Amino acid sequence: MKKITIFLFLFVSILANAQSYTLSGKVVDKNKQPLAGASVFVKEIKKGTSTNFDGNFSINLQKGSYTVEVSFIGYTTISEKITLSKDEEYVIELQTGSTVLEEVLVSAVRVNADVPVTFSNLSKKEIAKRNLGQDIPVLLNYLPNVVSSSDAGTGVGYTYMSVRGSNGERINVTVNGIPYNDAESHGSFWVNLGDFASSTQNLQLQRGVGTSTNGSGAFGASLNILTDAVSEDASAEINNSFGSFGTRKHTVKFSTGKINDHIEVAGRLSNIYSDGYVDRAFADLKSYYLQGSYTDENTLIKAITFGGKEKTYQAWEGLTIDQLKEDRRQNPYTYENEVDDYNQNHYQLHWNEKLNDNWSTNIALNYTKGSGFFEQFKEEEDAEDFNNLIVDGSDVIVRRWLENDFYVFNFNTNYKTDKINLITGVSYSNYTGKHFGEIIWGEDLAPNVNIRDQYYFSDAKKTDFSLFAKATFDISDKLAGYVDLQGRFVGYQTAGLTSKRKAIDVDANFSFFNPKFGLTYKINKNNNLYTSFAVANREPNRNDFENGVTTHETLNDLEFGWRLKSENIKLNTNIYYMDYKNQLVLTGALDDVGAPVRATSGSSYRLGLEIDADIRLNDYFSIRPNAAFSSNKNRSFFITRDGVAEPQALGKTDLSFSPDVVVGNIFTYKPLENLQFSFLSKYVGKQFMSNFSSAISDNDVLDSFFTSDFNVVYEIKPTKIFKSIVFSALVNNIFNKEYVDRGYYYTFDDTWSNAGVTTTVDGAGYYPQATRNFLVGVSLKF
Asked: Which end of the chain is less crowded, N or C, counting CB atoms within 10 A of the terminal residue's CB?
């Protein structure tokens, strides 16, 4: 009997110790407002969850003692020991950290799950896993409905991205709330931001019109970048990576940490070099980042400068179909110094002030200086094309220069209570630019002509003034409203000659009103629905004016979405309908400097479904799939061909460079806390490079492609010298696919080969991307 009693006692004790209990609670800020998406992590079992829309969380644990870490971006992380012997429920209050003031830098252009806008966030930790030298567009390639590419095929140098079929000229980019897009071309030249990912704290990609922002209007997406936050502790970091095609990246970073609890100085120096997949398409990118900051409980003053110098060999001409078949790595350029050489430096000053628990303000100043040229060899040129500075039929080497200055002033206020979040702002920018070409060598110069004489010149000025007010507010316990009203006033003047020695005399002014409205409905603690309607207007860019386009374009964007957030699943699903008037679509052709040519398409639309998820299968495996299915059409497209003056109707045609299907996935296996394997896949459907839907020939088609990458990250935490040693490896295009993800298409009327009969013929160019290639790196953190 005694043995039975002992056995029963031991059996009951084992059952009691093995029993599962629930650790639950709510994470709030000091105003008792819930923090949705806060991380709750149990260190001993390496298991965690995140809070739902009401700030609630729940984890099942066995009886025992645990260290629970709670964190949320912008708040001080707390770590507490708890002993669990029954169901426990806690209210956890996080205190604001200095990074809350950092977030004010981008609060005017950022959104959260309470706002009816479709978006994706990418944190510094996620960026670092694949940050081995490739540019930001390539690092964003696995976000929903994003397609990235590069001239040299390696993701280094001139790189590009499109979102929902809209290219970079239609994607608004801001850095700390300051417009980054070039004021004249509207493009974002990532080649001037070498290794900028190493100085990025986090970024947000909003698809569609999004929220009101500074600079050129968002017609497909907006990308908001926040640079490095103030570091509490002193640190240093050395990163080196090497890979295929002579690619290498060297980065040195440092931070003093907070000196006397208030002042920090931090910086970065980087050099990235790659020979390129395409022959001789090298990129040499030198860059820097330096910030000094002062912080106290309510104030952040931050002075930032960043920039650098790029030198890249030209590869924007692409290959013909015959050249692609013959040798996909060849480069048609043969002149040894056919290079792009450009310097760009940015200077920003930010002052964020928290006035009280409800009010905060932000003042920002910016100055950007750019100067550079590209050099080109030309054979047997006509003297008239060079202002008769050369003898007719001579060879010549020219440099085509761009020098510009860009000033920005931003001021924002934020009023926030438990019922309303109101942000108002004003932004003013002033841009001046000089475009000119000079002869640096001529086989036979005209009399009295000197080297560096200019053969064309034009100057430009652009002013951009905008003001906005946006608010999210509670209508009921479950329903919240959103209103965003923006007025934008643009003036653009330029005079002189283009590089083709054609007059460009523009004096245009635009006044835009861009309203946005939306609703968010909270179904329960894990689900919400949102809908929004937004209007955006956008002025033509310099190339459009050169091509005779003077009409602005208008977009009406309707979005409807569902967000699910549970312990192991985050799911975002949205339907969009983007209706355009006078959309400036890519014709498929390039101008003489490789910039895309656009034309007004009249009436067009983009209708699509986007799905992205983050699914935690268990403690070791997770998947992050996304898919976009869309229909992108010109409603009634016309062309002029075969020498006939009357336009011919093609009817409904596909919008150029707008794939109907874009699918991606990241499969992650994490067997240890310090070891992670990721398998990344991307499928992009067929694209048309023109708006003709192959009405003339099949040369305007880019075939669909499927690529996969493999990424490994392993971290060691030594006890001496280094805080951390991180080894990273990335194999791009692991299955060695030969694919083309970008190209161009053009037509011209030919009367020579048809005995006086004018016939429209076509041509095309293609940008081959690299076959299997790798990058490996090591990061030493002190």
From this structure: N
Residue 741 makes CB contacts below 8 A (sequence gap 6+) with 147, 148, 149, 684, 702, 705, 767, 769
pTM: 0.87
How far apart are alpha carbons 125 and 748 in whole angstroms?
50
Tokens representing residue 285 in the block: 């990118």
How many whole angstroms separate alpha carbon 566 and alpha carbon 525?
Answer: 9
What does the pLDDT look like over 112-156, one tens digit per residue? 888 999 999 999 999 999 999 999 999 999 999 999 999 999 999
Helices (H), 134-222: 136-139
Contact residues for 146 (Cβ-Cβ < 8 A; gap 6+)? 140, 161, 162, 163, 205, 662
Beta bridge partners of 4: none
Looking only at the bridges linking them, the beta strands covering 221-227 and 171-175 are parallel
- Could you tell me which residues come within 8 angstroms of residue 779 by beta carbon, excluding any fewer than 6 positions away? 128, 237, 238, 239, 724, 725, 726, 728
- pLDDT tens, 388-406? 999 999 999 999 999 999 9
Phi then psi for residue 569, to 5 deg, are: -135, 130
- pLDDT tops 50 at residue 14: no
Share of the chain above pLDDT 70, in %: 93
What's the 3-state SS for 448-503? CCCCCCEEEEEEEEEEEEEEEEEEEEECCCCEEEEEEEEEEEEEEEEEEECCCCCE
The H or E element that residue 18 is part of is helix 2-18
Summarised one tens digit per residue, pLDDT across range 459-470 is 999 999 999 999
Q: How far, in Å, CA of 434 to CA of 496, rounded? A: 10
Domains belonging to the chain, first-starting first, are 19-96 (2.60.40.1120), 226-781 (2.40.170.20)
Task: Name the token pair of 202.
Answer: 């986090």
